[in-house]
Design a protein that fits this description.
single chain; alpha/beta; 34% helix; Isochorismatase-like_dom; Isochorismatase-like_hydrls; Isochorismatase family protein; hydrolase activity; Isochorismatase-like_sf
Length: 175
């Protein structure tokens, strides 16, 4: 069975900049999974540091309200990997999931770490590049012209360990 992972779609990230295209793609994929009666699992990153926009008690830690009602499950995490010290593996096992689809934020951290961890645990992984986003940019990494989503997608594709698609390719292959 397939399951959709919606990673860190939380106020503290979504409100950091314009993610309208990413959020539109994520919502369309969520709706496709719902239409097929497939599970949608939201991951929520929680920080202990009070100054973090994702601090447990902050408004920023809450799921982005327009998408939150779609969640069949919500699992909290405290590291970039959605699998590390969480109930994600148990939830996927209970649902008999063998194929996970990765969407959400931050592409080069939580989405990447979760994709690799899923592969390491034996899941088939589909990473939907333009249904991920990041608060970081070329200035963060001091690399002019860096397209973080494209870079991560290309690196994952070249590993030949997981499927990397754009939203339109997802529609062609899975609808």
């Amino acid at each position: 069975m397939k399951a959709l992972l919606v990673i860190d779609v939380q106020n503290g990230i979504v409100n950091a900049k314009d993610f309208s295209e990413e959020l539109k793609n994520i919502e369309k994929i969520i709706q496709d999974f719902k239409h097929q009666n497939l599970p949608v699992i939201f991951m929520r990153h929680i920080d202990q540091e009070e100054e973090s926009p994702l601090h447990r008690e902050s408004e920023g830690s809450k799921l982005y309200q327009p998408l939150a009602p779609y969640a069949d499950y919500t699992i909290d995490k405290s590291t970039p990997s959605s699998f590390y010290q969480t109930d994600l593996t148990a939830t996927l096992d209970k649902l008999d999931v063998d194929h996970v689809f990765i969407t959400g934020f931050n592409t080069e951290f939580c989405c990447l770490f979760t994709a690799i961890a899923a592969f390491d645990r034996g899941y088939k992984v589909t990473f939907i590049e333009d249904a991920t986003g990041t608060v970081n940019d070329e200035d963060t990494y001091e690399m002019k012209g860096l397209d973080i989503k494209d870079f991560i997608g290309t690196a994952l594709h070249w590993t030949n360990t997981m499927e990397v698609l754009e939203y339109e390719e997802y529609i062609e292959d899975y609808r």
